[in-house]
Amino acid sequence: MGVGNFGAGLDVITGMKHLLVGLTLIVGYLVAMPTQHVGADCVGPTIVHDTGTFAAGDQLDIEGFAFGTNCYDTGPPPEGEGVLGVPVSGIEIVLVQGDLVIPVAAGDADGNYEFMVSITVPSDLEPGEFSVLATGPRFGEAWNQSQGVVSFVRSDVVSPAVVADFEPSNAPVPQPSEPSIGEDEPQESTSDTPFLLLVGAGVLMALLGAGVVAWRLNRRPV
């Protein structure tokens, strides 16, 4: 083996050492990466209802969900509470048309943070669009997820405004059976660290193989 080939071999070996050090640092960084958890945030109080055109005396169904008093998405809830705390009480459903506000239902959410009520459309409304709102002292105004508009048409039916009561069911407040989002165990998805480690190991082995081949080639006599 000539002096030139010997020097080239040393250069290859030195370069491989640098690559190994760099790859070691990269793999070490990937291992040290914290496990990431992916989970949905707590959804705020939300309602959905029938849409379309209604006349006095028609029935309009309204459903509510996620009516909780708290949000424990970063740790376990206190004993006796679920992920959304305790169910909301004192919910009021109103129809709003301009400055006109008509209470049509009132009640509490059940153990699943939900409620369902069917209200009778009153004849107090004027022809045109109106809104359905759910309000309460603990949450302000619920988000309305309904797609479409609701409008009132005049008819000969007289239907005075009546406040319908909805009572919670006997369903218990759901207790988490698994660690809540934010605890040590992953929820719904896992980290990409194992995949990245495999990729890093594959690259490392490929570079090692290439280095050995190059070193053997440089050992051949000229």
Give an account of the 3D structure:
The N and C termini lie close together (7 Å). The radius of gyration is 33 Å and the shape is elongated. It has helices at residues 3-32, 193-219; strands at residues 46-49, 52-55, 59-65, 91-97, 100-107, 115-120, 128-136, 140-141, 143-144, 150-153, 164-166. 26% of the residues lie in helices and 25% in strands. The protein is α/β, with parallel strands linked by helices.
Write out key terms for the chains shown:
222 residues; alpha/beta; four-stranded mixed sheet; elongated
Helix content: 25-40%
> How many β-strands, per DSSP?
11
- Main sheet: strands, sense, barrel: 7 strands, mixed
- Give the CA-based shape: elongated
Along the chain, the helix and strand elements come as HEEEEEEEEEEEH
- Helix count? 2
The unreliable regions are 30-40, 179-191
From the alpha-carbon coordinates, what is the Rg to the nearest angstrom?
33 Å
Structural class: alpha/beta
Mean pLDDT: 77
Strand content: 25-35%
Distance between the termini: 7 Å
Would you kindly provide a brief summary of this structure?
This protein has 222 residues and is α/β, with parallel strands linked by helices. It is 26% helix and 25% strand.
